[in-house]
Specification:
With 119 residues, the chain is mainly alpha-helical. It is built from six helices and three strands, in the order αααβααββα. It has a three-stranded antiparallel sheet with strand order 1-3-2.
Length: 119
């Protein structure tokens, strides 16, 4: 396997005006950490599958388990992670708990991600 080296400038020349402008716009380190943690959630196929199902319809754990061919326990574990990151929300109806995407941003992120890899 041949490893390509990243291209780099042939000589050192810092563009101070651009560096200053970007530094002024750069979010705080804590926000960047939170953003990285947010995107880590999307790094698990099971969670992505759950989110895509919830893009189509609000569902209870039983329905999710049936669609995804998984145990309710496994689904519940992943839903807990998704809920902690505020990607899904739930509501109780009698003895059932229904899950849905937390907001439209999640659908946008998933749709744009899929669109990007399909290009």
């Amino acid at each position: 396997m041949v490893r390509e080296e990243a291209e780099k400038c042939e000589f050192m020349c810092v563009h101070e005006d651009i560096v200053k402008l970007v530094n002024e716009k750069m979010p705080e380190e804590e926000k960047l950490f939170d953003l990285a943690e947010f995107f880590k959630i999307f790094g698990d196929t099971t969670r992505i599958r759950i989110l895509y199902v919830l893009m189509c319809s609000e569902m209870c754990v039983c329905d999710l388990a049936q669609i995804l061919g998984m145990t309710q326990s496994a689904i519940s574990h992943q839903l807990r992670v998704l809920k902690q990151m505020e990607l899904v929300r739930n509501r109780r109806e009698g003895k059932s708990i229904f899950y849905s995407l937390a907001d439209g941003h999640i659908k946008t992120i998933l749709s744009q991600g899929l669109e990007h890899i399909e290009e």
